[in-house]
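User:
Hi there, any thoughts?
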Amino acid sequence: MLADALIWHRLQFAFTITFHYLFPVLTMGLALFIVVMKALALRTGDARWDDAARFWIRIFGINFAVGVVTGIPMEFQFGTNWARLSRYAGPVIGQTLALEGIFAFFLESSFLALLVWGEKRLSRMAHFASAVALFVGSWLSAYFIISTSAFMHHPVGYAVGPDQNLQIVDLGAVLLNPWALLQFAHNQAASVATASFVVAAVGAWYLLRNEHTDFARRCLTLGVGFGFVASLVVAFPTGDLQAKAVARHKPAALAAMEGRFESGPRAGITLIGQPNVAARRLDNPITVPGMLSFLAFGTFQGNVAGLNEFPESDWPDNIELLYYAFHIMAGLGTLMIGLMGLAALALLTRRLFTSRALLWALALAFPFPYIAVTTGWMTAELGRQPWVVYGLLRTADASSQMVHGGTALFTLIGFMGIDFLIGLAFLWLVARELSAGPSAHPHGTTAPEAAHG
């Protein structure tokens, strides 16, 4: 019965965190774009950059509000669904989560209020400073949360106390965990790539409709430029360094990600194949010889361990899902680099704004980074299994014993229904802003003030 309840606990947390992260992954990247637009407005004196920033501040605000609402249930789930995890590791992970709430979240929310409602009351420089503070707050928030995740992947700076629960002995080690630094760099590059695709998609859509053409060209220029660079950085060096870290510290996860059961040098990267766990083989594989050894160890002769070297009890518990999540992430990442590379070339040769094929491709490609980010996090979390705190606490020993499967399933259904309604409201609000366009409100007038007038 406890095993059945564990499945629903895991599904509930997976659903709530996946739906929630669709919103902050955009706001973190948009925070950088808003700073850049406000800086361009200050440097050039061109008020049209202020208009562009004002439009994306409104989109940021909608995403931020929905992200806050959808993130609240996760905090309660640590106590309701994962009480044994909270008791065991709470003295460590509770510190980083508290730092996020006390410092980063309030910094972000306070300066968002100044950006949205304070433009007429602040000088241009003060409004720009508010945008910088918003950016710092959103990225600092991400770092504290990623530090929490990194500890669960690669525990450092802790000791086991007399009560057999974890205690912090070095907060600096926890905050500067090498795993956190790598994960943060990779995650933030992915958030900038996500925002770039969204900004470029909006610009492409307006240009295809011959609406707000000056705004559209500005969005395309920034979106494509940042998107190409960010998509490259997601793959190299940040993705490459994370792959090497996984190879060193989680060899079983790396083997499962590639559906690799046998060990050996010159291990190839699998382009296509189907993992057959029962038979312990990869069916119908198409591989690039030596590339996995090179990516993992920097040499084509590197010996990559297969799953057969590890006890089955230490294998990731859903190898098929892990394998496909990793390959979807990698495949979409490659497509994103290719598309943004073509768009950047067209931008340099002054053909982007007139190429309807490329504009349609950019307008329709905005889901790519969302899917890639989601499958990327699935890869990270499924690869950590069967541990919730790697090497210290197994997932099967972390859930709440007093919450049975029926209760977990009931609340999961409730969250799905609520989030469906929230999603509809979000889409309606964003569609309304897109329909209104960047000139929806007079210069220096916020949405609430315009509505009041």
Notes: The CA atoms of residues 447 and 453 lie 10 Å apart.
